[in-house]
Amino acid sequence: MIQMAPALRYTLLRFALFIGCCGLFWLLGLRGLALIVVGGVASMGLSLWLLQRPRDELSARIDERVQHRTAVKRSRWAAQIDADADAEDAEVGRDDRGPRESRS
């Protein structure tokens, strides 16, 4: 079986389900806008039941990506905070020479 991204797989399955529902309702005599609306509503309802596994795979993949990006951002923030703290410590170390004279 061909491996594809969960988002692409879910999207193609949703589209196929919509086309299938529209085809069924076309055979039953619906035409025009009514065909599109009824086919869309029917495919939406059926996808909740028929496409649960692909939807769960997609949401798990999205969650993994969000968790990874959050961890990367937190590590960058921690590195920036450490760098800021080091710079601040270095500045405080320079100020240990004594109080600054006021310039008037």
Descriptors:
104 residues; mainly alpha; 3 helices; transmembrane; DUF4229; DUF4229 domain-containing protein; membrane; transmembrane helix
**Total strands:** 0
Instruction: Determine the number of helices (DSSP H or I, runs of at least 4 residues).
Output: 3
Mean pLDDT over the residues: 85
* Domain tally: 1
Q: Strand percentage, roughly?
A: under 5%
Summarize the biggest pleated sheet.
none
List the helices and strands and how they pair.
Elements lengths: L5 H22 L4 H19 L1 H43 L10
Helix pairs in contact: 1-2, 1-3
Pfam family, one: DUF4229
Keywords: Membrane, Transmembrane, Transmembrane helix
Protein name: DUF4229 domain-containing protein
How would you explain this protein's 3D organization?
With 104 residues, this protein is an all-alpha fold. The chain has one domain (6-89). Helix content is 81%, strand content 0%. It has three helices and no strands. The chain has helices spanning 6-27, 32-50, 52-94.
Brief digest:
InterPro entries: DUF4229. By secondary structure, the chain is mostly helical.
